[in-house]
Amino acid sequence: MEAVAKEAGVGKGTFFCRFGDRAGLMLVLVDEAEAEFQEAHTSGPPPLGPGAPAVDRLPRSAAR
Question: How far, in Å, CA of 40 to CA of 50, rounded?
Answer without folding.
Answer: 9
